[in-house]
Amino acid sequence: MKPIVYTLLLISVLLQAQENKKLKEDAKVSGPVLLLKDKAKKEVKDGEMKQYFLVLLKRGPIRNQDSTTAAELQKGHLANIERLYAEGKIDLAGPMGHDGDLRGIFVFNCDTYEEVLMHCSTDPAIKAGRLMVEIYPWWSAKGAKLR
């Protein structure tokens, strides 16, 4: 059953990618133009949209590690986040404020779903099955930031 689910998920992602191309072309907002600066120090028109990827980190199926192993996986997980942030791949990451199945989020600044999946696969907690991911294309104003 899992191969069927993964196949359907892959087909869904490919169809979404085609739709996102069209949305990206239409994503410019008309109206007064203010100039902002993004990370690359290029001028960005106010309201210009960019695709990011929202990653939901969920409780994985393999959580029977002893406390020492779980602590090492967490240490590696945090080091991986720091590395990806330094490389400009993750713009935002953090845990949820409850103890449910949803454990945290990433917002990736990557060009493709496949690139995000590749970066997620470098996370020790994901590789060990302690966490699993759901990846969604997500749009926001280019250069947006939290306040």
Describe the structure.
The protein is α+β, with helices and mostly antiparallel strands and 147 residues long. The chain has one domain: 2-Layer Sandwich (Alpha-Beta Plaits), CATH 3.30.70.1060. It is 38% helix and 28% strand. The protein is built from 4 helices and 6 strands, in the order αβββαββααβ. The protein has a 4-stranded antiparallel β-sheet. It has a two-stranded antiparallel ribbon with strand order 1-2. A hairpin with a 6-residue loop joins strand 4 and strand 5. The longest helix is centred in the first third of the chain and has 24 residues.
Record keyword descriptors for this entry:
147 residues, alpha+beta, Alpha-Beta Plaits, four-stranded antiparallel sheet, two-stranded antiparallel ribbon, 28% strand, elongated
